[in-house]
Design a protein that fits this description.
Shape: globular
CATH class: Mainly Beta
Radius of gyration: 30 Å
CATH architecture: Beta Barrel
Number of strands: 9
Distance between the termini: 78 Å
Number of helices: 3
CATH topology: Cyclophilin
Strand order of the largest sheet: 1-2-8-6-7-4-3-9
Largest sheet: 8 strands, antiparallel, barrel
Structural class: alpha+beta
């Protein structure tokens, strides 16, 4: 009987050891970060433009200008003053430069353009010139766009953000 008890005890100990999950001391589960850092290679489809408490989207072109603009916006939003020019656009100076790749184009209502290397132009009409495309504002009607841009009403504060 003692022999059976020893045999069964040894068998149970070996069985329990065989069933134990192996542990790998080199494996550690890292908790997810609440706000992971954005991948600088990720390029958003759009950015936001806000004027007088109203925000709409700008669908971005994918070029060196917009990639540089997005890199700047990842640090913080940009606010600048824009004024009417020529009865077809609002234009404002950023206060910093962006890389350019201008070409002769006809900009139309809704286009967001870089003029020179530091001026953002928001079109509510059209004009042909050598510009670098940034993107296109998303809006429902020309009247809505003109109201948003306060076309013909003087200077506005413009905020660009992600």
């Amino acid at each position: 009987m003692l022999r059976n008890f020893i045999f069964i005890s040894i068998f149970l100990v070996m069985f329990l050891l065989a069933c134990e999950q192996p542990s790998d001391s080199n494996t550690h589960i890292q908790p997810e970060k609440e706000n992971p850092e954005p991948n600088p290679n990720d390029f958003p489809d759009d950015i936001k433009i806000s004027i007088s408490g109203v925000t709409i989207s700008i669908k971005l072109e994918d070029n060196t200008t917009t990639r540089s603009l997005v890199a700047t916006l990842r640090k913080s939003a940009i606010t600048y003053t824009a004024g009417d020019y020529g009865g077809f656009e609002k234009v404002g100076t950023l206060g910093f430069t962006l890389p350019t790749n201008p070409s002769q184009i006809t900009a139309v209502a809704g286009d967001v353009i870089l003029y020179g290397n530091n001026q953002i132009v928001l079109f509510y009409g059209s004009n042909s010139w050598s510009y670098t495309r940034i993107g296109k504002m998303i809006y429902n009607s020309l009247d809505e766009l003109k109201s948003f841009l306060k076309a013909g009403e003087g200077n506005i504060q413009v905020t660009l953000s992600l």
